[in-house]
Design goal:
Layout lengths: L1 E4 L2 E3 L9 E5 L2 E5 L5 H12 L4 E5 L5 H4 L10 E5 L3 H4 L8 H12 L20 E3 L2 E6 L2 E7 L8 E5 L4 E3 L17 H11 L7
Parallel strand pairs: 4-5, 5-6, 6-7
Antiparallel strand pairs: 1-2, 2-3, 3-4, 8-9, 9-10, 10-11
Length: 203
């Protein structure tokens, strides 16, 4: 993981989204989850050594963002946009979320495949809290401003942490890699990009 600020860590060296952890005085908040199970479990262990994981925020419903939700079930409150369920059961090549997760492990993190639960024990773990346009979450000494930022997907959100000058924008931005526009709506995406430029961020 890369340390962006004293309280913010992100993983940028694996395929898929760049999941992050924000540490507050009252516990941590995960932003998305790694689709590499070995990396996900390492990040969870790192966070739990410092205290409880209070929230998991999904910036969208594609598999590389929600892959690890199972491992937070019954432990952390999951937050996402109200349209997240439209994509949560990601269908690819007629695979449901469970089969797609297994397929991802077989192709990208085979050594961790034995850690995947059985279908019977697998928990989809959809968001328990949803919002439509904007939501503010306060935890300890940190504020999390959640904005609906459609374009890449209908459920896309941005998580802005003003105290850290950090914004997690999910797949709204791609840097030095392939841009995925398979479910994109270009006009809202351009509006979202304009909005992101108004945020006071370093990262």
């Amino acid at each position: 993981m890369e340390k962006l600020t004293p309280n913010v860590y992100v993983e940028t060296k694996i395929r898929g989204c760049n999941p992050g952890i924000v540490f507050t005085s009252e516990g941590s908040v995960f932003i998305d989850t790694a689709q590499w199970l070995s990396t996900l479990l390492e990040m969870r262990e790192f966070a739990l050594e410092k205290g409880p994981i209070k929230y998991l925020i999904n910036t969208e419903g594609h598999i590389d963002h929600i892959f690890g939700n199972h491992w937070f079930a019954g432990e952390s409150i999951v937050i996402g946009h109200e349209k997240l369920n439209e994509l949560f059961w990601t269908v690819a090549d007629e695979k449901d979320c469970y089969d797609y997760s297994v397929d991802v492990l077989e192709r990208q993190d085979k050594d961790a495949l034995h850690l995947m639960p059985s279908r019977e024990d697998y928990i989809v773990n959809r968001p328990q809290i949803t919002f439509s346009d904007r939501m503010t979450l306060s935890l300890g000494d940190h504020t999390f401003e959640l904005y609906h930022t459609p374009g890449h997907s209908t459920s896309q959100i941005c998580v802005y942490v003003p105290e850290e000058k950090v914004a997690f924008v999910g797949d709204t931005l791609f840097v030095d890699c392939q841009t995925w526009l398979h479910s994109a709506d270009i006009d809202p995406l351009l509006e979202t990009l304009d909005f992101l430029e108004t945020l006071d961020v370093d990262w």
